[in-house]
Amino acid sequence: MTGTITKDGFEKLLEARKLTKIFGTLKACNDIDLKIGAGEIHALLGENGAGKSTLVKMLFGALQPSSGDIAWKGESVTVTSPAMGRSLGIGMVFQHFSLFDALTAAENIALSLDEKPPLDTIAARAREIGQTYGLPVDPDALVGDLSVGERQRIEIIRCLLQNPDLIILDEPTSVLTPQEADLLFVTLERLRSEGKSILYISHRLEEVRRLCDRATVLRHGKVVGRCDPRTQTAASLARMMVGNDIHVIERLPAEETDRIPLIEVNRLSQRPRGPFSVALHDIRLSIIGGEILGIAGVAGNGQGELFEAISGEVLQERPEIVRIRGIDAGRIGISARRKLGAAFVPEERLGHGAVPDMSLTNNLLLSRHSTDRKMFLTGGVLKLVSESSLASAAKRIVTQMDVRKSAENPDASALSGGNLQKFLIGRELDRNPSVIVVNQPTWGVDAGAAAHIRQALVDLARSGSAVIVISQDLDELFEISDRIAAMVHGRLSESVPIDAMTMERVGLMMGGADTTVGAA
Amino acid sequence: MMRIEIVKRPQHSALFSALSPFIALFLTLIAGAILFSILGKNPISALYSYFVEPVTEVWSIHELLIKAAPLILIAVGLSVCFLSNNWNIGAEGQFIAGGIAGSILPVVFPDFQGWYVLPVMLLLGMAGGMAYATIPAFLKVRFNTNEILTSLMLVYVAQLFLDWLVRGPWRNPQGYNFPETVQFSDSAILPAIWPDSGRAHWGFVLALMAAVVVWFMLSRTLNGFEIKVLGRSSRAGRFAGFSAGRLTFFAFLVSGALAGLAGIAEVSGAVGQLRTSISPGYGFTAIIVAFLGRLNPLGIIAAGLVLALSYLGGEAAQISLGISEKSARIFQGIILFFVLASDSLIYYRIRIVSRLGDPALKGA
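YS: structure for the whole thing
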């Protein structure tokens, strides 16, 4: 063990002075000062695009600062590469895992090590570290068979094998159930007690308050605040991040409508379509107008497959398996389902919901060419594309959803994630659909835009439409849903009314352990 | 220490999109000049006789149009394929299939004569190319077979079939055993546009018409939109409700029809009979034409003329410089190489930075 430093000492382990990174004309990081003491969990807070990733990449050696310098254990250093970062003692666990599904855990770990000890040695050390830090993992298991939580443990073990003094964690709980997150916190507290430092990037304010000793808040590439998160409230932290009060979602009680289900799924079962696809088992759901069903679940439990089945990108065996406004739709494609009044917003924006190198107007046509044929297409059978009506419709959506863009009609890939998502949701809302299915509506979207999107979905439901929101963000689901169900291993639990739902219960449902309702 | 960085542009560059073919041509001329000087020729006069001399006389401009017609026709069809992510490399085979199918009437039924013969021949030519292109399309859609391999292999099948046909059952009995069919009758010959000044035939006009029609389809219609969406992202295409399989058939049928039309137009307009050697590799050169023309049918017209020039230049160079006409192939290869290289400038920009940070920005 390296750092045997008193816990309250906060001896400077890493100090960044006036770190600046410029991309073209954009100052992604602007004169950032950051001090991390030994044996502390230091939170790095900020909205998407605040400069957190850029800052961390500079510390880790993946990016070179344009100016400013970094001191490591009191000595000025230039971290030229991640390999050098590792040799200094800086380890990083990325948000998106870099593991090979077809290899075992131990083989994956071996790939990242500089020296090449035999696999047995690695497996033994991995087991030992796993036991010490409460990260149980079978080194001989194929990564493809492991849950997301287990994969994250492999990444952390891989990082700990290098014996780092500073561990950087990028949004580690975004893929975990609340129970799995609790286990992770125990591990992190244990590491802290051994004098290791952790730079913890997150936008989940409650866990930052619970776990972290100090916090540095970034906004627009600048440090806008430093605080002890334990003395703050979630709201005061959020204010620091966003710069003003976050819009609170208004949710009027659902009106009693005539209770006709607008979208139904009856006994949907489906085999996996590829090696990394999940089978669906006997999924049933039914939503009436005015209602929002939230579907919770850890990524990779069949949410994407369910979305594609309801949207009609994948057809069902029998027509009655999916019913839209009472009409059997299981054997008709996505365009025909849209014509029945349904709308869909997939999880991936670039390459699924939008074509990256096509303009916004073209991307508007992408999902609207069949439902709004009269508006966007002229010339009868020739189906000529009417650029002028596309442009005016795009303009309407941009205004309605407050989409910020740099050019009149930019490519989809030129928009930030949040702005593109606002456009893609606005594209569907603009039709006033009677059913909308949205997968991860605010994933990677900054707080302001997320509130805007959630409010738009709530408003749509209150105007009489049925809404399905598939999300990993439990706070979001509690904020907008009328009922919540959870997906685990391709099964959907019974839904529970929001009044009867608790964080703990949804966590159990996501783990597949809620026997009171799961088996029904 | 310096290094060169390739940085992705946030938005693709319209400037370099237009400039890239010209950069490529410029670099090709430089590479050609180097090549000629290595061969011991004066590069300036060599380039002159290669690229300028062929267009200084009226008759050779006619020859240019004759060579350009099949290149443009085929490349326009290929642009539909390539834009929709269907890699049809077998246009040469579809060209031959069109030439054979279109020749059925004048070879097997030489007694049929009249105004209707030529239209029927052209339609049969298109049908032959389409039928031949259906094979790789079907294999791709039904069995997920790689269309690059199947369409390419079918080229050799078509070449050998043509060889067998004109040496065997279709050989001209009065042809002194040359591997040729009978000469087509007048009603089966695609006429010259300006018969007084040269032999350029109506195939070039057909090529221009095809280019304009396909350009209109690609740029103005939902069908063109579907092609571009599925070509860039099959998943987004599925989300839009477009069928990738249907489009694969459509793209192969269009390009097969145009390659087949080019085949029968060449046989009927430029050659006048079916022979083993009806194509100096038009179907392959058209791939270069399609890319040099930025997969835009109007750009393809210009690119087709440029590549046609390389064929004439090769012949001219053989006569005046004593260089093998195969040098035309080298030029065509160099052009394709530089076109693909210059295209990366559309999505990426190049900048030179020092090893530690960016001095240009540091100084600012």
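YS: worth flagging: Residues 2-354 of chain B form a domain with the ABC transporter involved in vitamin B12 uptake, BtuC fold (CATH 1.10.3470).
IM: good catch. Also Chain B has one domain: 2-354.
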